[in-house]
Design brief:
single chain
Length: 233
């Protein structure tokens, strides 16, 4: 298990003074990146070998979002490697061990030269010993959504959405998706599926639907092919 300590800063709170939904996901992603960095397998190191870990799916359960100034710890560990995929849990808690949020995530190992997923090599697996999976409900990494969607926004991809892979970072998708939720909607659970990497010059067509109290946000290209799908409960 890898852990790091953090504190809720003013730049990351929402209008209620709580760590934002997308910022919770960012904190978990940061924990994963710190883990890789401290093991000598950072994203920049992997790029030198034409390799990268790209996220395929998130499933985050929010118990309580910490408030401005509150300290918290994020833990992460891999629990399985399957072919091109790596599966990783996250746990966010207070110093008193109160659980704030937990998550399942799926990542795939990517060859940036060929543009294709590749099998996770033994050297990469050896850096991250697997541990038992967190006790939670495990759902499909595929998110089903209603066919009838309403177009809400057209968002051109700009440079500050990109990460070192020159793709829109997964946290940016979540941030944009939260922006089109009803303001009074309190998120208790998020499932997100990443299908196609958006790049500079692309336009994200943000479409939404509501079904039985669950909100769906789907980002597509101009032809309707999804980049990203989110389910908020």
């Amino acid at each position: 298990m890898y852990s790091y300590n953090d504190r809720v800063s003013f730049s990351r709170i929402d209008r209620d003074g709580l760590l934002g939904i997308s910022n919770v996901v960012d904190a978990m992603q940061d924990c994963c990146m710190f883990h890789s960095e401290d093991e000598g397998h950072s994203a920049l190191d992997l790029l030198k070998k034409n390799r990268a870990w790209l996220v395929s799916a998130w499933h985050v359960v929010f118990k309580r979002r910490p408030q401005m100034g509150e300290a918290f710890t994020v833990h992460t560990w891999p629990y399985a490697f399957k072919g091109v995929f790596g599966c990783r849990n996250f746990l966010m808690e207070t110093p008193e061990r109160e659980v704030l949020a937990y998550a399942d995530s799926h990542w795939f190992y990517f060859d940036s030269a060929s543009g294709r997923p590749v099998m996770v090599d033994d050297g990469e697996k050896a850096v991250y010993p697997v541990e038992p999976a967190y006790e939670m409900e495990y759902k499909s990494r595929k998110v089903k959504f209603p066919r009838e969607l309403s177009l809400r926004q057209e968002v051109p991809v700009c440079p500050n959405y990109l990460d070192t892979n020159n793709h829109v970072n997964n946290g940016q998708y979540v941030r944009l998706a939260v922006n089109v939720l009803p303001m009074e909607f309190e998120v208790h659970e998020l499932r997100a599926e990443f299908r196609l990497a958006a790049k500079m010059g692309d336009t994200l067509y943000i479409r939404t639907a509501e079904e039985n109290g669950t909100y769906y946000t789907v980002f597509t290209d101009s032809e309707g092919s999804p980049y990203f799908i989110a389910e908020f409960q």
